[in-house]
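Duplicate of #3305? Posting structure anyway:
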């Protein structure tokens, strides 16, 4: 972090500077569309029991600062693809960014233990929705976390998505034990969002760091 005439900013390796606070008063949609560093932490990410989300502006973890992601995981599809490594999850092999792969491996160990204790949970992993994919988020021009190889969608047949449900009401079928396994290793879950995507888990360790939690 450096400070200048416009206040604190984050300087990335390529020299790009991203303001900590751009001074704008923003709606939730503004934070997602044009975030500064502070906007990432504007909503604290909740863990613990799963509860229905009724506030249309409650989407903790959906704000992504793309210049920071590009600096961390790769500036383009070629760089990201070169950084992917294989990870086994629920007896399937997926490709994940090497910087996030150790966390997914720890999740996989937790999932293996869950499947041994309750084999019926296997239905949530039979047809994985995928990991790395160079694409934008549906209905937007924003880059998907899948484009950086740091997100995984579990079984699509068990998922609920905000664009598909009646009146966009929050719904969920993913058991809390699966959510807990991912969140324990720094993954946010799309089921914590009003604009929910319950098959989606995304590596965002900064949102679980107590120092960052207190900064929001």
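Output from current build:
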């Amino acid at each position: 972090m450096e400070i200048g005439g416009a206040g604190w900013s984050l300087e990335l390796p390529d020299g790009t500077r991203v303001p900590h606070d751009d001074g704008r008063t923003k709606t939730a949609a503004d934070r997602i569309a044009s975030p500064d560093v502070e906007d990432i932490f504007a909503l604290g990410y909740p863990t613990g029991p799963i509860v229905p989300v009724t506030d249309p502006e409650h989407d903790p973890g959906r704000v992504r600062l793309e210049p920071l992601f590009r600096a961390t995981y790769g500036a383009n599809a070629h760089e990201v693809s070169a950084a992917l490594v294989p990870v086994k999850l629920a007896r399937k092999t997926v490709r994940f960014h090497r910087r996030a792969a150790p966390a997914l491996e720890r999740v996989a160990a937790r999932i293996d233990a869950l499947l041994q204790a309750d084999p019926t949970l296997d239905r949530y992993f039979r047809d994985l929705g995928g990991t790395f994919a160079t694409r934008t988020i549906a209905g937007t021009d924003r880059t998907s976390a899948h484009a950086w190889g740091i997100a995984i969608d579990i079984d699509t047949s068990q998922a609920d998505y905000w664009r598909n449900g009646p009146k966009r009401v929050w719904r969920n079928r993913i058991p809390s034990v699966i959510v807990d396994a991912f969140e324990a290793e720094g993954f946010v879950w799309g089921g914590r969002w009003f604009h929910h995507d319950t098959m989606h888990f995304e590596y965002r360790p900064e949102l679980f760091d107590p120092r960052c939690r207190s900064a929001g």
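Confirmed duplicate; merging threads. Helices lie at 28-33, 37-40, 66-73, 77-82, 101-117, 176-183, 210-213. The first strand starts at residue 2 and ends at 4.
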